[in-house]
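Record type: ASSEMBLY
Status: queued
Input:
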Amino acid sequence: MEKTETLKDSLGSYVPAAYMLPLRIGVGWMWLDGGLRKLVLAPQKVNPASASFVLGKFVTFLPHSGPFEGFLKFMLENPSLGSPFLIVYSVLELVVGTLLIIGLFTRLAGFGGALMAASLAPAFWLGSTCEDEWQIGSLLVAGGVVLMLSAAGRRYGLDSYLYRRFGDRGVLNTKLLRHIKLW
Amino acid sequence: MQRQDVIALTFAIIVAVFILGTGQWAYGNLYGPLHNYSKKPMVDIVSVSATNFDNHTYLLLNITDVNGPDAYQTSIPIIVVSNTTFSLTLNSTQIYTHTVKIIQAPWNLNKKDGVSRVGGLELWLGSEATYTIIVSKLQPGSYTITLYVPEVPAVSASFTVSAGA
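Status: finished
Output:
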């Protein structure tokens, strides 16, 4: 019988890596959905000439933007400047979401997802958004960190092939970076 | 303590600090006071002025909405212009009829402020606009304009109609 990939904790108990699959699917789909909506299902959202242009929502951040007010107004008055950023961000959402779901470079994707979620933090306080935005962002940060730390893609993910073929590989073979695994 | 424990605790602290910090920062949900600016609108009168022309007074009302939901507009269905001897009330239909021009702030990208028969003046959170509203000619003097917004206290500002025009 094939040995199950496990996460061993300090007490010697084992957590099957397969248990990370629901988290991979959940967090991954949240990111994939963000990119899918903007780039595929409603591409007018990234069109600065459209009334649906997502960055138009920046206006709702203005009342509590403090020192960022000038920057936000500049972006609102020059929407064509924000469009490339929005497209790149949406592509990243698609990539991170897809990688997490298929379990490829899961740790890197988890790290990227956590950073992207943390980057949304200004929306928590710049806008007078309801607490839901904070809850979603916080859970995506925590989920991304867990997926980054665990070898979540080594079971039911393409990382399992990479692990079997190449073993544990650090990002770079330096004192610090070799501890950060690629998959 | 094993290496994985150190890593787990380190990242747990980072995540906890992020969550608790942003929660307190944005909503005061760690030790209070709780605040959530998305619940009720807060209309702010940026400026108001009046000019008499022919037999009418042109009110220039620059307003913005600084709190409230971001998904739908704030309505101002009643406007009252008054002083000690005079009072004029405009309901939403009259506001719609008497509004002749709306100048959007340049940052109102796709959230345009407007006016409707039902809601009166309608503002998006964060957007700003100058409404030109024509009313019957006001006599020279000082006036107060009061905007009534459902669920929140009315907001007022003073303006003067000069004798010159």
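Annotation: Helices of chain A lie at 21-41, 69-77, 79-102, 106-119, 122-126, 131-149, 159-166.
Annotation: Chain A has one domain: 17-179.
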